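Predict both folds.
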Amino acid sequence: MEKNMTEKESGINSVLLEHNVFIIWKPEYNLGITIIDEQHRGIVSIINSLHFGTQCSYVKDILTPTIAMLRHYALMHFQTEEYFYETINIADINNHHRLHQEYTLKLDKIESKSTLDKDTYHLMGFLKEWWINHICEEDRKSFFP
């Protein structure tokens, strides 16, 4: 028999419940390429974890390692995408590769300012805009011209 638990009994603090995720994964973000979809969800998860840390005021402890994680995970993801592009002979591979390089350069610039200021406002906006556009526009256009 299931017991109805109060917030206190379940250990959930109502303050924490107010911190929604920054990017809500939507079914339309799926491309139907399992490994690509999983990696995209992984990147969104890292971004949401950074958002949560920011909301709970421990961003100074996690900012640098989280940006490093985003950098490494994105590199792996970009290599996976480019492998697919080469394998299925995507015509626009050079443009997509350029977009990947631009992401890395932009992340470098924003990382410096965010780390110095311990402020993730511009970083979070960049990450959300770039990744949603990357998933919904650029990847969809490249994989399904």
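Second protein follows, with its predicted structure tokens after the sequence.
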Amino acid sequence: MSSPTIILDVDGVLLDYLGGFVPWTVSRGYTPTKRVHEIDDWEIDSWLPGIPHEEARKLIGEFATTEEFGRLPMIPGALEAISNLREAFPHVRIGALTAAGHDPRTAQLRRANLEKFQLDFLTVLPIGASKKDHLIDVGANGVFIDDLMHHIRTAEEVGLATILFRRSYNAHETHHRIANDWSEAAAMIERILGEEMPRSFAA
């Protein structure tokens, strides 16, 4: 059996998307009704009142081609945790799967923003795209981390071990593995790799 793969979502897991997006909407003349840490729903029209759903989606697409998108701050502890996991499990592939947009500029900005993580792979899908086809190949021999439950459910359908990364907008969601920060996420990943998938490291 091949070594396991750790598959990471990006926005809300590795990078603080809302921490960049919300200030950008303000610079565009919008007035969010909530501060970043108060946002309790991923749907933008719930905290940008009066904005049609389609306009909100266009804003996301536009933001994904801006310099601000390429400078999103890292989630605290993420870089150190990934580095430590790579050292502890050198034969494990660590990569990212993100539905950030189809524009070539988006992929370029995303790669630059994630460069310090030294990921083994990065797959950039269109906004709102399903991640299922890209998770099937990994199957039961992988760990998947995301902040959105519909992606978590998709990963579980193909047999992946999953971790829900807690953010303010998913506080209402329940799951058997919830990481409140990267310290907890790393500990869960280590436990999964060490206890649930030990055969993956057999010679």
